[in-house]
Specification:
heterodimer; A: about 475 residues; alpha/beta; Rossmann fold; 2 domains; six-stranded parallel beta sheet; 23 helices; globular; B: about 240 residues; four-stranded parallel beta sheet
């Protein structure tokens, strides 16, 4: 294990506690409801246009499963192809190694531009660079809002989804960008003026990768603003940090994901800016290209036959947008750069520490409604992984009040006569009833009656009636 | 004459017996012979969903032996039917053919008009496991549309979870309550006097909130509406 994985934020409380704070934030609730409701509807329409959507999902699932099954082979292929085209491949076991490699590659640069990237968020790259005196400028608009507001991301695709435009204007103003109003166009213009200077002055760019084609060594980034492409083409040196699982075998496989990803994430038929580069090309784009292949808990995740499907994820955010828990608590409650349903299964696996209470609380942050599985473009059965990880959490926790109660319940259910005695005992709850309702229960029941009346146990369980009338 | 075994579920047997009685009455009216194996208890869903897999395996094995040899097990609960049909096989047991009530009526018996009468304004919440795990779709709605006297009002954002989620409701009580609040708002917007669903667990949750706020909306399980006739109309149970 060694050092802690920065995929979770140090000091974050367990989910129920973090959620309680978030639920009280009325502005957050409104912003999230508006944003997720809109994107949900748009995704449904975009997906509904394709008659072969189910086949596409199954193809995406099959390609990713094949990649995970033969990851060693595809990664070697990728390394060979990137090297042959003038790129340099680096391998990083964990966040610390990756940060060290990137910092070394930054050389004398004191300021670098960044393409929005989850992998670099996951390893806390910006913080590591800042410690060494290198300032990383986020160039994705939403990521810039988060950075300038000294905030944390709350969504995979739209990290500032928890902010509305008047809040964004305030953040920009405090950072000296001075937008004239809170009109989206004016805000974007202020960011644009700020970023143009950075694009033209920075010598080094850092990016993530959505995909990399093993056969040709081509790396792919999808984005909507064009700021990413500025970073990928203008600076002299390009450093890409990519999770091991992002490799795909061929361009034909890429075609499947270029259909699945835009419709699932931004509800677009075709992605606006898809940048693909292969090594270095003299006189065209960066003169130096480095690809850092990041493990950081991925091979450990791969070892779990149920949990490994989380590595199919293409970071589209569709599961976040449909999740009723995410919609109400927001992303920061998950205490990680990966929030929502995918975060609830990916984060604890990357952390890989069953005694980390915050990470262990994440698989319980779901009502198991299954909306996430329904929309996932690579068919990750998130509810099944959640219950699988809950079982691991229970095992790690050992004996607790809950485990004793669960064992007692199982013992009761193991015998019909014990069960019937328990029914009789349970009917004592009738003593708590007033006017046909129970509004207060002691002990663990209080968590129920804090907001809900409890049903008054029936005078006669069904089985009694059956014995008298049909038995 | 179709022979069926009723799996009442521990929750309905203990807390909502009217639903199980209604299920028997309805199935018998439609010509079925109903058996209720008295050895039945629980399908193990709460244990499984909370992470207590070993107990869930024991209860799944118990379920398979109690209902062994049955042609059809009918369950007035989408989530318990989902547990039996979709999870128990992964736990290494072979459950008999098991149907959620509306599936059994529509798919096996091939009826949508069950001769019911229920003169109330009703809205329907499609519970998550019926909808997504079983894929029961609009079968309950097809049944409700044929009920005489019943005025069916569409529930806005019907497919959103009510926030129950078993132990989620107490482990994450605040988030569960926030989801419940939005569900109740949608229910109240319909102006319905009755909220129905195929799961007493979700109805216990939404109904518990509706009761706490004295909204005057009553939760009634789908089976009770379908069992109600002009000769013997539904009446609220006194507790």
């Amino acid at each position: 294990m060694g050092t802690r994985n920065p995929v979770t934020w140090l000091g974050s409380p367990a989910f129920p506690e973090a959620a309680r704070t978030a639920l009280a934030d009325t502005q957050l609730r409104r912003n999230l409801r508006n944003a997720t409701t809109t994107i949900r509807g748009r995704r449904r329409d975009a997906v509904g246009e394709l008659p072969d959507w189910e086949q596409l999902r199954r193809a995406g699932e099959a390609i990713k499963d094949d990649v995970l099954h033969h990851l060693d082979r595809y990664l070697e292929q990728l390394e060979e192809a990137v090297t042959a085209r003038g790129g340099v491949v680096h391998w990083a076991r964990d966040a610390a190694e990756a940060n060290e490699i990137v910092l070394r590659l930054c050389g004398d640069a004191r300021e670098v531009v960044k393409v929005k990237s989850m992998a670099t968020q996951e390893i806390g790259l910006n913080e590591a660079l800042a410690e060494a005196g290198v300032h990383a400028v986020e160039t994705d608009l939403a990521e810039l809002i988060v950075q300038l507001g000294d905030d944390r991301p709350s969504h995979i695709l739209v990290p500032a989804i928890h902010r509305n435009r008047s809040e964004i204007r305030e953040i920009f103003r405090a950072a000296g960008l001075d937008p004239a109003s809170d009109e989206p166009r004016v805000l974007a213009e202020a960011a644009r003026a700020h970023l143009r200077r950075k694009f033209l002055s920075c010598e080094v760019a850092i990016s993530g990768a959505n995909f990399a084609v093993a056969g040709t060594g081509s790396v792919v980034v999808l984005e909507s603003e064009g700021n990413g492409r500025m970073c990928l083409t203008l600076p002299r040196k390009l450093i890409t940090v990519m999770g091991l699982e992002k490799v795909v075998p061929t361009w034909q496989d890429l075609e499947v994901f270029l259909q699945l990803l835009p419709r699932s994430s931004t509800a677009e038929r075709m992605n606006p800016y898809t940048s693909v580069w292969t090594g270095v090309t003299p006189g065209d784009g960066p003169e130096e290209f480095h690809l850092v292949l990041l493990d950081n808990g991925r091979t450990a995740t791969l070892a779990d036959p149920v949990g490994r499907q989380a590595l199919r994820c293409i970071r589209c955010s569709a599961c976040l947008n449909v999740c009723p828990v995410y919609e109400r608590t927001g992303g920061q409650s998950y205490g990680s750069v990966y929030p929502g349903p995918i975060g609830a299964i990916l984060t604890p696996q990357l952390v890989d520490d069953p005694h980390d209470k915050q990470a262990a609380s994440l698989p319980y942050a779901s009502s198991l409604c299954g909306a996430c599985f329904e929309v996932c473009p690579v068919r990750i059965d998130i509810p099944s992984v959640l219950t699988h990880l809950r079982a691991q959490a229970v095992e790690a926790k050992g004996r607790s009040a809950e485990s004793v109660a669960m064992a007692a319940a199982a013992w009761v259910f193991a015998s019909a006569s014990r069960y019937e005695k328990a029914q009789k005992l349970g009917s004592l709850a009738r003593l708590f009833a007033r006017d046909g309702r129970i509004s207060w229960l002691p002990g663990p029941g209080a968590a129920w009656t804090s907001s809900r009346d409890a049903p008054v146990p029936a005078r006669e369980p069904f089985r009694e009636w059956w014995r008298k009338n049909r038995g | 004459m179709k022979k069926v075994a009723l799996f009442a579920t521990c929750l309905t047997d203990t807390l909502f017996p009217a639903t199980a009685r209604a299920t028997v009455r309805l199935l018998e009216r439609l010509g079925c012979t109903v058996d209720f194996p008295l050895d039945q208890t629980c399908c193990g869903q709460v244990h499984f969903n909370t992470g207590y897999r070993a107990h869930a395996v024991d209860l799944a094995e118990r379920f398979a032996s109690v209902f062994a040899g049955q042609d059809a097990v009918v369950v007035p609960s989408g989530s318990c039917a989902g547990m039996v049909r979709h999870v128990q096989p992964d736990l290494g047991t072979v459950p008999p053919p098991t149907y959620e009530l509306s599936e059994f009526l529509v798919d096996v018996l091939g009826v949508t008009d069950v001769g019911a009468y229920f003169p109330h304004r009703v809205t329907f919440h499609p519970t998550c496991h019926s909808l997504r795990m079983l894929g029961a779709g609009d079968k309950p709605l097809a049944l409700l549309r044929e009920v005489r006297g019943l005025e069916l009002v569409e529930l806005p954002q019907a497919e959103q979870c009510c926030g129950f989620g078993g132990t989620f409701a107490v482990k994450n009580a605040d988030t569960s309550t926030a989801m419940l609040a939005d569900k109740m708002r949608c229910v109240l917007d319909t102006g319905a006097e009755v909220l129905t669903a195929g799961d007493n667990s979700c109805l216990m949750h939404i109904g518990g909130g509706l009761s706490r706020l004295r909204t005057g909306v009553r939760p009634v399980h789908l089976a009770e509406i379908l069992a109600s006739t002009e000769e013997e109309p539904w009446a609220p149970e006194t507790r």
